[in-house]
Amino acid sequence: xxxxxxxxxxxxxxxxxxxxxxxxxxxxxxxxxxxxxxxxxxxxxxxxxxxxxxxxxxxxxxxxxxxxxxxxxxxxxxxxxxxxxxxxxxxxxxxxxxxxxxxxxxxxxxxxxxxxxxxxxxxxxxxxxxxxxxxxxxxxxxxxxxxxxxxxxxxxxxxxxxxxxxxxxxxxxxxxxxxxxxxxxxxxxxxxxxxxxxxxxxxxxxxxxxxxxxxxxxxxxxxxxxxxxxxxxxxxxxxxxxxxxxxxxxxxxxxxxxxxxxxxxxxxxxxxxxxxxxxxxxxxxxxxxxxxxxxxxxxxxxxxxxxxxxxxxxxxxxxxxxxxxxxxxxxxxxxxxxxxxxxxxxxxxxxxxxxxxxxxxxxxxxxxxxxxxxxxxxx
Length: 379
Hints:
By secondary structure, this protein is an all-alpha fold.
């Protein structure tokens, strides 16, 4: 176990406080910035070990870039570094998102604000779809995964619970792999217990702060895939139950896009809309807490996890199902959002911008959509 030294702990705090403020662009951009800082610039670890940690974070639930911050903090400064690295990366985003949440709750429904929100919605849908496209290209590796993705999309569009779709795809992939490799003596005895997590529906008859905490604790504990999968879960857990409107969900995604740090900070915004300050606090703690626990348990066994072939098959299938679920959510959002020529135009312009300037920060697309939406409402 790494030992904590005061100087090293200060280094961790300084680095991740900085990244928490300037890290725009989503998990891939965040991890690229971390690689440059800790491998190339500071030499805290070699490239191979950094890649090992990326592989490990892909095998567990939770926000990947946040978990990388926690991993690096632990590697550099032990248990204190684990806590400080994660907290320093998360808190700036949570604070900034909290300000937006207060402002939105106070003024978001005023007519002079709505024209700006009007243009954000189609831009957000395009951002999500373009963000998952590269992921889809990487994860659809073979015919089995393509078939599972199509099946997952169909079941998702039919309204099946997203956890049944994701874990169902994972277990089907394991069975297919088992039968294909049966003659080679394969077995499924090395499946990690994490793959057996069950997630019963949470009946939120009254959205108390305890309900909010347990809902987001569950999401943080079982959410695989990119940060965008979070919004599919929220659509099912909150929008479908009438606790949150789809407009509020879209606006929460927008806030997550043009604020730095983890996309999961959108949960702070949502919690505030539901139950004010305490709702924001318990929701934020609930969704991020599992990441600290998983990294603390995972870091010492990273070498063994990388060798788990069966778990890797399971994860591949969960990832393609996650993509199908995101597409379904975008479809549902599009039905409510892209309803006239103005929103179609904003969507097309957003797509052109993202395809023409692939390194463009999505925050600029959100801001651009907002401004164009305002100008179009003047026509």
